[in-house]
Write a structure and sequence with these properties.
By secondary structure, the chain is an all-beta fold. It is 0% helix and 51% strand. The mean pLDDT is 94.
């Protein structure tokens, strides 16, 4: 059973930066399909970024140019580098390989002055 453990969240001021980490345990054939999602209060979970083919990735329009997803299969870790953070980026962030495993606990990101 593949499991995902997110970390790195916190409180950051608008315009600030934060890097989230996701530790993956269990069998993982490749980084293809590893993704970050987020769920803001009162909203549905949405896809933020996904590794489509190492090193290529896809991003939600709302985060393009500000967020970067990357992964290292040897370290079994996926990162989400976030810069130019906005209050609307406030959410619980989850990582997961699309179609594989269950959701983790997520890590909370709050963007506020």
């Amino acid at each position: 059973q593949v499991q995902f453990v997110e970390s790195g969240g916190g409180l950051v001021q608008p315009g600030g930066s934060l890097t989230l980490s996701c530790a993956v345990s269990g069998k993982l054939a490749s980084m293809y399909g590893m993704a970050w999602f987020r769920q803001a209060p009162g909203k549905q979970r949405e896809l933020v970024a996904v590794i489509t083919s190492d090193p290529d990735a896809g991003y939600a329009e709302s985060v393009k140019g500000r967020f970067t997803i990357s992964g290292d299969s040897a370290e079994r870790t996926v990162w989400l580098q976030m810069s130019g953070l906005k209050p609307e980026d406030t959410a619980i962030y989850y990582c997961k390989k699309i179609g594989v495993g269950n959701w983790g606990q997520g890590t909370s990101v709050t963007v506020s002055s």
